[in-house]
TrEMBL record:
<dbReference type="InterPro" id="IPR000383">
    <property type="entry name" value="Xaa-Pro-like_dom"/>
</dbReference>
<dbReference type="InterPro" id="IPR029058">
    <property type="entry name" value="AB_hydrolase_fold"/>
</dbReference>
<feature type="signal peptide">
    <location>
        <begin position="1"/>
        <end position="23"/>
    </location>
</feature>
<keyword id="KW-0732">Signal</keyword>
<comment type="similarity">
    <text>Belongs to the AB hydrolase superfamily.</text>
</comment>
<dbReference type="Pfam" id="PF02129">
    <property type="entry name" value="Peptidase_S15"/>
</dbReference>
<protein>
    <recommendedName>
        <fullName>Xaa-Pro dipeptidyl-peptidase-like domain-containing protein</fullName>
    </recommendedName>
</protein>
<feature type="domain" description="Xaa-Pro dipeptidyl-peptidase-like">
    <location>
        <begin position="62"/>
        <end position="314"/>
    </location>
</feature>
<dbReference type="InterPro" id="IPR050261">
    <property type="entry name" value="FrsA_esterase"/>
</dbReference>
<keyword id="KW-0378">Hydrolase</keyword>
Length: 523
């Protein structure tokens, strides 16, 4: 499916994720590369529902509803691979055959389904909990394994890929990891998750500082269909209103860490599981809900070293995007890396990837085992490692708290290319209680015109007064080429429009002495 972008207004009106957001324009593809026209009647659609596990405290099975798309020529003698698809948060399954035209024209079957709590499916959304959504995906895999026209690798094991973005990427991981836990193999043969998460608590509230606008949007999107358990909805609203991430430490408070604790690859990896299948990762470099570092964490931890050699990571300018006003950022939608690798958009890259991984066809696809990241100037930077490999001494970094303007501190003069996951080390002094500042990278000719590189900041938080305490602080993952005549800056801001209302609880300053920035510099 096409990559997606959004604004807060769209998220509040209809949800966060790919299925309900406006599509980013796809790069043009040469007419010779387009598939031959196929009459609409060539694809046969079938609707249905399967029975899955009941909600807690009930005995009534929950129905999970789907639409199957059978391509022309697929039958018991001409079996085809299947591609599973599901929607983003607040959305529902796709029922229009035109949406999957590229896949069905290429001879793939498709099954699109309503996740628990959404569309025609019953129950509540448990946000990709293995016990619930994991069971739902297993029921659907069982259904696919019984279709006579679908290629099978063994009993109950269809040849199966998966697509979808945001929440539609989350089901891919929970389904694959649950099959691995129960059967010793993931059943999926290849995945293509986009703009999804590694660890929900750490991305919804990094260092327990709530991403206000996204927490509100997440709850608001669930209101029309009553998709979220009521206590979870109220806890999200409470966290956005108070600036406290509800963790159950207050009597009567919902524990969101517990609710979300098993709902992502990080938990499965912590249980000793890694997927040994090829994965095409797509992540938004300007995504402010599931930022680039969430995707890179999946790249490094969710799959085995062997699988990584047969996998590809693509970062594009897009995803869950809010206007970056304070600090001021960039406004760009582009996917230069999919264009470089496949001559088109991410969906075309996915199709070529599946042809190689599900069918064993040589599509001359390059870029395996590497990370390919879009810059704000719509260039593609490819690297084998995103780890920091260089240091720059910045010295003293000062930020006001609670109110004030972003302050830029020079890190390096261009030309320099940075691509990966940086961090800083410093001695931190903060006099107030619960001091917070938001740190990211900016580029410009001077501090006056420097703009946030890819719209992301991460909070530095000191809950109590500290003096000269050594800290290692994670910084947003980025990809940027700083040209000659411009500079890379470390930006420290007392406020962030992604974390509205999440500034320090008391006014004052945060001082970082002896600051050293550790950069992933492309040599």
């Amino acid at each position: 499916m096409p990559r997606r972008t959004t604004t807060l207004a769209a998220a509040l009106a209809g949800g966060l994720a790919a299925a309900v957001l406006t599509a980013a324009p796809a790069p043009a593809v040469a007419p010779s590369a387009a598939p031959a026209p196929v009459p609409p009647t060539a694809v046969t659609t079938t609707d249905g529902c399967v029975a899955s596990v009941p909600e807690p405290g009930t005995t009534q099975p929950v129905r999970i509803c789907y639409t199957v798309f059978r391509p022309a020529g697929a039958d018991a003698r001409h079996r085809v691979p299947m591609v599973m698809h599901s929607h983003g948060w607040g959305g529902s399954r796709t029922t229009d055959p035109a949406a999957f035209r590229r896949f069905t024209d290429a001879g793939y079957g498709v099954i699109s389904f309503d996740q628990r709590g959404w569309g025609e499916s019953g129950g509540y959304a448990h946000v990709e909990n293995p016990r619930f959504e994991g069971a739902d995906v297993r029921r659907l895999v069982r259904l696919v394994s019984r279709l006579a026209w679908v290629r099978q690798d063994g009993p109950g094991d269809p040849r199966l890929g998966a697509i979808g973005g945001s929440y539609g990427g989350g089901y891919q991981f929970v389904g694959a990891f649950e099959a691995l836990r129960l059967r010793g193999k993931p059943l999926f043969d290849a995945l293509a998750p986009e703009i999804t998460w590694n660890d929900l608590p750490r991305t919804l509230a990094p260092r327990d500082v709530v991403r206000t606008e996204w927490a509100l949007a997440l709850g608001a999107a669930a209101v029309p269909s009553n998709a979220l358990p009521p206590k979870v909805y109220l806890a999200l609203v409470e966290g956005a209103a108070t600036g406290r991430w509800p963790d159950g430490s207050v009597p009567g408070e919902e524990d969101l860490d517990a609710f979300f604790g098993h709902n992502g690859p990080r938990w499965h990896v912590g249980q000793g599981r890694r997927l040994d299948i090829p994965v095409l990762f797509g992540q938004g470099t300007t995504d402010t809900l599931f930022p680039l570092e969430q995707g890179l964490a999946n790249w490094h931890t969710a799959i085995t070293d062997r699988a990584r050699r047969h996998s590809i990571f693509v970062g594009y300018n897009g995803g869950h995007v809010l206007p970056a006003v304070l600090p001021q950022g960039v406004d760009v939608t582009s996917d230069p890396c999919s264009r470089r690798l496949a001559g088109g958009d991410f969906e075309r890259l996915t199709l070529r990837f599946f042809d190689e991984q599900l069918r064993g066809r040589d599509r001359d696809l390059r870029g395996y085992g590497r990370v390919h990241l879009a810059t704000p100037a719509s260039q593609c930077v490819s690297v084998g490692s995103v780890a920091a490999n260089a240091t720059r001494r910045v010295g003293r970094v000062v930020s006001t708290t609670a109110a004030g303007v972003p302050l830029a501190h020079e890190v390096a003069a261009g030309p320099i290319t940075v691509a990966g996951t940086p961090y800083l080390t410093a001695r931190v002094t903060a006099a107030g209680l619960d001091s917070r500042t938001f740190i990211g990278f900016a580029v410009g000719t001077s501090p006056a015109d420097a703009r946030l590189v890819q719209n992301n900041v991460l909070p530095l938080r000191e809950r109590r007064p500290v003096t000269g305490v050594a800290r290692r602080v994670a910084l947003p993952s980025v990809a940027v080429r700083v040209p000659r005549g411009q500079k890379l800056f470390l930006l420290a801001s007392p406020v962030s429009d992604t974390f509205v209302g999440m500034g320090s609880r008391t006014p004052g300053v945060v001082v970082l002495d002896g600051t050293v920035v550790h950069l992933p510099v492309v040599r």
